[in-house]
Amino acid sequence: MSQPTDRSGQGAEPYPVVDVHTHVVPRGWPELSTACGGSGWPWLRIDSERDAMIMVGDTEFRSIGAECWDADTRLADMTADGVDVQVVSPTPVFFSYERPADQAAKVARIFNDLTLEVTGRGGDRLVPFCQVPLQDPEAACVELDRCLANGHVGVEIGNHVGERDLDDEGVVTFLRHCAEVGAPVFVHPWDMPGGPRLDRWMARWLTGMPAETHLSVLALILGGVFDRVPETLRLCFAHGGGSFPFWLGRADNAWHRRGDLVRGRSTRPPSHYADRFYVDSVVFDPAALRLLVDTMGVDRVLLGSDYPYPLGERPVGRVVHEADFLTDDQRAKLLSGNALRFLTGNDRHRAGRRS
Q1: Which of 45, 242, 280, 310 has its CA at a distance of 20 to 30 angstroms from the CA of residue 190?
Q2: How is the subunit organization of this protein annotated in UniProt (predicted)?
């Protein structure tokens, strides 16, 4: 077994380091208007053997490289960063929640099957999460069950479906099903509002994404979802839970002082529910990570990177390794133990070490 080195200069950790937040864009998908119906689908412009551009119509959406589809490139980067296991989730632009459910179900099936081809080349180091047509709860449950039977371990969902947030009854039906079948759920913000004030400086990603996540966590709490779904439901929010952890005190204050408007269907103040979900560590600064750990609890923060996209963290785990306020046991939870519990419901996982 090789001994990759992290930024702290120490050798490989004595436990499997697990990155719960990475994305994939497989190659080889068919022309989606033919395969799924409709028009205006994303397509992949191949620029070279190792470079491509995700296109939406005639608009360039995102430049991507071979690390998005090539397992060997991905595994090499993991080894360089000292990561044993990646959770590999869809890229949200392909969710297709705005389309008819039958079209979204077809595209989900295509990308879910292609994702298994990518992760299958990584053995148990690459853990696939699927996507589902969340606008149709029944179809979403059917696709999740198919994917779990085929080798997916969990599911990534967007944080809303049009104007329907995570307290929508259809979404709650799907979340209950996830709890019943033991599927972990990774929630990723997407489809942020635009406009003149948000379409410069990547402001939709820098301000819109944190706000979207914050809003959806509040929807689960104030919409009474956590009071209605089993405690066995395992949820993780991307990007450190957005702005929610920083403003949890404000939410509690509003719940107590303006309960006539704020409490909704919740039975307890927002801070009561902080142990009902996980967040990843993609906050980039040890001071921000300390706030996250202090607010959410050390058992609720998981290593994440947003690999392979440019707003992600490289080397993966840098902020966790640089956080000198963490004890060795706490660091082990963030790098490994919490993710294993999120993935499996316990502290055991079959994921393999890098070699």
Answers
A1: 45
A2: Monomer.
Predicted pLDDT at 7: 36
Q: Tokens 């990570």 appear where?
A: 289
Handedness of CA 111, 116, 121, 124 (dihedral sign): positive
User: In sequence order, what DSSP letters do the residues of 296-327 get, joined into one string?
Assistant: H-GGGEE----BTSTTS-SSTTHHHHH-TTS-
Secondary element (H or E) of residue 216:
helix 209-222
The CA distance from 106 to 34, in Å, is 11
β-strand pairing of 85-89 with 59-65: unpaired
- Mean pLDDT across 209-230: 94
Q: Report if pTM > 0.85.
A: yes
CATH topology of domain 18-24+73-344: TIM Barrel (3.20.20)
φ/ψ of residue 235, rounded to 5: -120, 140
What is the spatial distance between Cα 24 and Cα 87, in angstroms, rounded to a whole number? 10
Residue 182: in which H helix or E strand, if any?
none
Q: Where are the domains of the chain?
A: 18-24+73-344
Nearest to 281 by CA among 232, 223, 227, 339: 339
The pLDDT, as a whole number, for residue 5 is: 36
User: Of 190, 263, 281, 185, whose CA–CA distance to 229 is shortest?
Assistant: 185
- With left for phi above 0 and alpha for psi between -120 and 50, is residue 345 left, alpha or beta? left
CB 130 within 8 A of CB 156: yes
Cα(272)–Cα(289) distance, integer angstroms: 20
Phi and psi angles of residue 292, each rounded to the nearest 5 degrees, phi first: -60, -45
List phi, psi (to 5°) of 22.
-140, 165
pLDDT at 348 over 60: no
Residue 245, token pair as written in the block: 């952890």
Name the token pair of 72: 């060997």
